[in-house]
């Protein structure tokens, strides 16, 4: 009888709201060499784009790259990101560069032209320097300065920050393995 009471108490504790289930913390592979990342952010629509940076920093740290290993740079707009990315890549100080910006209608350029130009230039930087460059430069079809749109894109940039951190960490792991295989003559 006493054992049945103890079992009932244990069962109650397990189902009690006072002992919430803790989420399983994912484990990520460790890097064999130190990583250093440059994060280049456009200041245009800063209140939206900074959500990407904040989410990126949280996720990249969860993946084994300390916040202190990420250098932050801010440029006026997305159009200025590629030149900064190129100069940063040429320093050989960074194992990756991440770009974040929001390109919207307005000004003398069409937003599709700016976004396309920025993405092509970032691809060119990574192919020329062999430093991976990741883009969270987004071009919404419709963006209005309304509170609803700003809030929607703030939330969207949080998602993009996590996604770009995942892509960055996965690519850096893949390149680390590949470069090790090349150095060992396996590939």
From TrEMBL:
Stored Gene3D superfamilies: Lumazine/riboflavin synthase
Gene Ontology BP term (one): riboflavin biosynthetic process
Cellular component, GO annotation: cytosol; riboflavin synthase complex
Binding, (2S)-2-hydroxy-3-oxobutyl phosphate: 149
Transferase keyword on record: yes
Binding site for 5-amino-6-(D-ribitylamino)uracil: 44, 78-80, 102-104, 135
This protein's pathway: Cofactor biosynthesis; riboflavin biosynthesis; riboflavin from 2-hydroxy-3-oxobutyl phosphate and 5-amino-6-(D-ribitylamino)uracil: step 1/2
Any Pfam family: DMRL_synthase
Enzyme class: transferase
Keyword Transferase included in the entry's annotation: yes
Enzyme Commission number(s) from the entry: 2.5.1.78
Region spans: Disordered: 1-28
Family recorded in the similarity comment: Belongs to the DMRL synthase family.
NCBIfam families linked: PRK12419.1
Protein name: 6,7-dimethyl-8-ribityllumazine synthase
Gene coding for it: ribH
């Amino acid at each position: 009888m006493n054992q049945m009471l103890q079992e009932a108490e244990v069962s109650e504790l397990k189902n009690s709201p006072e002992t919430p289930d803790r989420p399983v913390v994912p484990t990520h592979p460790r890097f064999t060499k130190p990583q250093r990342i440059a994060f280049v952010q456009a200041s245009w629509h800063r209140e939206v784009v900074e959500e990407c940076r904040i989410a990126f920093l949280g996720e990249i740290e969860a993946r084994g790259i300390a916040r202190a290993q990420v250098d932050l740079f801010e440029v006026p707009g997305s159009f200025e990101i590629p030149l900064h990315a190129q100069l940063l890549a040429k320093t050989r100080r960074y194992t990756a560069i991440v770009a974040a910006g929001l390109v919207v209608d307005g000004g003398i350029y069409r937003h599709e032209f700016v976004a396309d130009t920025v993405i092509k230039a970032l691809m060119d930087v990574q192919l020329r320097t062999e430093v991976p460059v990741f883009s969270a430069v987004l071009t919404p079809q419709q963006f209005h300065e309304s509170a609803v749109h700003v809030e929607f894109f703030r939330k969207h940039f949080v998602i993009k920050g996590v996604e770009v951190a995942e892509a960055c960490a996965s690519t850096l792991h893949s390149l680390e393995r590949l470069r090790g295989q090349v150095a060992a003559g396996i590939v």
